[in-house]
Specification:
Elements (H helix, E strand, L loop, with lengths): L1 E2 L7 E7 L6 E4 L3 E5 L3 H6 L7 H8 L5 E5 H7 L13 H15 L5 H12 L19 E6 L12 E5 L1
Antiparallel strand pairs: 1-2, 2-3, 4-5, 6-7
Helix pairs in contact: 4-5
Length: 164
């Protein structure tokens, strides 16, 4: 990486692989830090009941942050997995959604839950899962039940999953 000064507070260059559409970027100004689960989406799916501290923790959680191209971040906006998926690494993306939904006690609609399940069931193996903070690789995921209406911050798993 190239830094703006010796203080190493501002990165100006480097080489980043783009996880949503492929390719690389060397100019830090062309990167955005994406919230895997967008802040606006989370607010509309249970995050509106969080305390300021819980909102700040969610917004700054490294599990929910990913460097990507500015254009990919803007095309995604505040969409859920039923409205937007990356063109590559779909299973890894869906698994991160699943993990974060459980971690933060967020609620999903049926179409969103189905999108997560179908994404990994259609893909034989996640291509960039190793090295991430996700607990497992899944070749197929079946969602049996989604628990709704829990209090925010409850970290019990939202999904009962079986690996096929």
């Amino acid at each position: 990486m190239t830094y703006h000064s010796n203080a190493k507070c501002k990165v100006t260059g480097g080489l980043w692989e783009l996880p949503y559409f492929g390719g690389t970027v060397t100019n830090a100004q062309r990167l955005d830090i994406d919230h895997i689960i967008p802040l606006k989406w989370a607010h509309g799916h249970g995050g509106d009941r969080w305390t300021e501290s819980q909102k700040r923790n969610f917004a700054n959680d490294p599990d929910n942050l990913l460097a990507t191209s500015s254009s990919a971040n803007r095309s995604k906006g505040a969409k859920g997995p039923d409205k937007w998926l990356p063109s590559i690494n779909k299973c890894s993306y869906a698994k991160r959604w699943e993990q974060l939904i459980g971690k933060y006690g967020l609620m999903t609609a049926a179409g969103e839950t189905e999108a997560i399940a179908q994404t990994c069931s259609q893909i034989a193996r996640c291509s960039w899962l190793s090295g991430s903070r996700l607990p497992h690789q899944y070749s197929s995921l079946t969602l049996h039940k989604f628990i709704r209406g829990r209090s925010p911050g409850n970290n019990r798993a939202d999904f009962n999953a079986s690996i096929a």
